[in-house]
């Protein structure tokens, strides 16, 4: 079993967020490949544009990199961790996944129902002609 110091979460726009072991959240900023075709991901604190209080002056410079399944904070945060926000984002992500699964099931069921309706119409039409 793999021992990681981070978790991936779904965000509202269908992208990924990262939560680290200390209770901080990050958005993916960029990704780079080196000459050995290895990928390193760079992640910024979710409060990089506006701080936790919504003000630009309190924005956070927290930054990290993900390489070889190890997440490392490269620039420290300017605020305390918000574990409750991490829990909330994890919960929201699970709900989004459940809704997507149910939406797919409902679409498949609707398609199956409409296919059955067409089949029964065809059978009825064919039997009415005979």
TrEMBL record:
Question: Could you read off the lineage of the organism from its UniProt record?
Answer: Eukaryota, Metazoa, Ecdysozoa, Nematoda, Chromadorea
Please tell me the species this chain comes from. Ditylenchus destructor
Return the protein name.
FLYWCH-type domain-containing protein
Gene3D superfamilies xrefs: 2.20.25.240
């Amino acid at each position: 079993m793999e021992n990681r110091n981070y978790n991936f979460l779904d965000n509202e726009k269908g992208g990924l967020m990262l939560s680290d072991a200390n209770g901080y959240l990050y958005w993916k900023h960029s990704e780079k490949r080196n000459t050995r075709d290895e990928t390193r991901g760079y992640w910024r604190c979710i409060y990089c544009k506006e701080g936790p209080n919504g003000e630009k002056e309190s924005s956070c410079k927290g930054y990290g990199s993900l390489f070889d399944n190890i997440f490392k904070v490269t620039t420290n945060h300017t605020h305390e961790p918000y574990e409750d926000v991490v829990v909330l984002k994890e919960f929201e992500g699970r709900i989004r996944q459940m809704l997507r699964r149910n939406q797919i099931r409902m679409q498949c069921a609707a398609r199956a129902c409409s296919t059955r309706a067409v089949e029964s119409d065809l059978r009825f039409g064919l039997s009415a002609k005979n």
